[in-house]
Amino acid sequence: MSGLIGELIRAIPDFPEPGVTFRDLTPLIADPAGLRATISALASLAVPPFDRVAGIEARGFLFAAPLAHALGSGVILLRKGGKLPAATIGLDYALEYGTDRLEMHADAVAPGMRVLLVDDVLATGGTAESAAALIRRAKGEVIAALFVAEIVALGGRARLRAAGIEPRSLLTY
After folding, report:
1. 72 CB contacts (<8 Å, ≥6 apart)?
2. What Rg, from alpha-carbon coordinates, does the chain have?
3. CA 53/CA 63 separation, integer angstroms
4. How many C-beta atoms lie closer than 10 Å to residue 150's C-beta?
5. What span, in angstroms and rounded, lies between the C-alpha atoms of 38 and 47?
6. Catalytic site residue 101?
7. Each residue's pLDDT tens digit in the chain (173 positions)?
8. Cα separation of 129 and 4, whole Å?
9. Is 89 in contact with 102 (CB distance < 8 Å)?
10. DSSP element (H, E) containing 110
11. Which of 3, 92, 132, 151 is spaced 20 to 30 A from 103 at the CA atom?
12. Active site annotation includes 96
């Protein structure tokens, strides 16, 4: 089925800037068989036991919720700053050009909770590393980070491993 998944990911050259090839997962998400295959394949990468699946805004949500459903788990939302209605904890992190912020509800992760982190693409690893740090700040444990696709040349895998996070990707580019 990974052939089907890879066939449904569209390569967009020179986006968002010249020299970059953007991996567009929207055709994959739109295709019922492709989405089912992706969730099934991600489920096969899951590391039991775990308590919750955490999805990183925004495209990570598209995979975290159906994955959690398939695995009988709930979902933790890791959102950009200022988007959650109840009390939050947050973490500012560096981007290539500036900073960003991730937040989650303060009560989303209980101490000792085992969390499976999910996002669409692993690139530099900065967002996933920050998401894991936020979960750890709440005294949760990130048992693995799952990705649909990984851009190997950007070094995210090494960065996550150095931070004590095991990355698992369905496809690599």
Report:
1. none
2. 15
3. 10
4. 21
5. 16
6. no
7. 569 999 999 999 999 889 989 999 999 999 999 999 999 999 999 989 999 999 999 999 999 999 999 999 999 999 999 999 999 999 999 876 778 999 999 999 999 999 999 999 999 999 999 999 999 999 999 999 999 999 999 999 999 999 999 999 999 99
8. 29
9. no
10. none
11. 151
12. yes
Classify residue 171 by burial, with Cβ atoms within 10 Å: 0-12, 13-18, 19+: middle
Cα distances from 136 to residues 72, 81, 104, 115, 130, in angstroms, run 23, 18, 12, 10, 10
Contact 36, 30 (CB under 8 A): no
**How is residue 84 written in tokens?**
């959650």
Through-space distance between the first and last CA atoms of the chain, rounded to whole angstroms: 17
SS3 state of residue 36: helix
The pTM assigned to this predicted structure is 0.95
Which residues are within 8 A (CB) of 57 and not within 5 positions of it... i.e. 6 or more apart? 77, 78, 79, 80, 83, 102
Catalytic residue among 36, 57, 59, 101: 59
